[in-house]
Amino acid sequence: QVQLVESGGGSVQAGGSLRLSCTASADTYASNYMTWFRQAPGKEREGVASIYIRGSTTYYVDSLKGRFTISQDDAKNTVYLQMNSLKPEDTAVYYCAADKTYGGRWDAAAYRVWGQGTQVTVSS
After folding, report:
1. Coil, strand or helix: which one is 81?
2. Is the separation of the CB atoms in 17 and 86 below 8 Å?
3. Which residues touch 69 (CB under 8 Å, ≥6 apart)?
4. β-strand 68-73 against 10-13: which pairing, if any?
5. Of 15, 35, 75, 109, which is most buried, counting CB atoms within 10 Å of its CB?
6. What is the mean pLDDT of residues 97-107?
7. How much of the chain is helix, strand and coil, in % rounded to 5?
8. 79 Cβ contact partners less than 8 Å away, ≥ 6 residues apart
9. 4 with 24: CB under 8 angstroms?
């Protein structure tokens, strides 16, 4: 059973925008946090933005504040990541994660459910 499905990735020029979607099964969406991570070639997976589903509280890594926005649509069991003013260094595979257990919000090992990832490529 597929629990998380991401979409919306693609190729864009620097300065452009993309909106990623992560649709969850009902049980997965009802868990606590849903968080976007990204992984660039040769680099570790890093946190991007997170939302506490029950309270709609949002969190961002400091370096991305102001450019990225996470939001939710409860009717669609979907979390979005709006990415503006994209830079070549934003190029990565973006993953959605859910069902956080122990550990910090940006600790990838803390999440039990992952999507398949969606590629974002930003050209200069």
Report:
1. strand
2. yes
3. 49, 58, 81, 82, 84
4. unpaired
5. 35
6. 90
7. 15, 50, 35
8. 21, 22, 24, 34, 36, 51, 53, 70, 71, 72, 73, 96
9. yes
